[in-house]
Amino acid sequence: MNHQPQEHNSVPNFWSTRYAIGLFVIGGVAAYFLLTEHLAHVVGVLPFLLLLACPLMHIFMHGGHGHHHHQHKNPDTSDNKKSREPGDPS
């Protein structure tokens, strides 16, 4: 039986190429030097970022607190059930 190799014409994943690995390493080195050289500036801004986070969390994370949520009464739990007689089929 002859088995011929299958040719894959698919494009390789970008993150598995050597260019992506090089880009990741260069980005890591750049981030390291930016953080070490400008650490005083980053630390000086942290309190303001915390204060900015408070209103943003209030706006985006509360979910409306029940606004626009209407309670639908179940017909079985309404007052009609209480007014029926115990043996009444309707």
TrEMBL record:
Which keywords describe this protein according to UniProt?
A: Membrane, Transmembrane, Transmembrane helix
Q: List, alphabetically, the Pfam families matched.
A: DUF2933
Is Transmembrane helix included in the keywords of this UniProt record?
yes
Can the keyword Phosphoprotein be found in this entry's annotation? no
Region of interest called Disordered, as start-end residue ranges on this chain? 64-90
| Source organism, top-level taxon | Bacteria
Residue ranges of the TM segments = 15-35, 42-61
Q: Which InterPro entries match?
A: DUF2933 (IPR021682)
Q: Please list the residue ranges that the record marks as compositionally biased, kind Basic and acidic residues.
A: 73-90
- What's the protein name? DUF2933 domain-containing protein
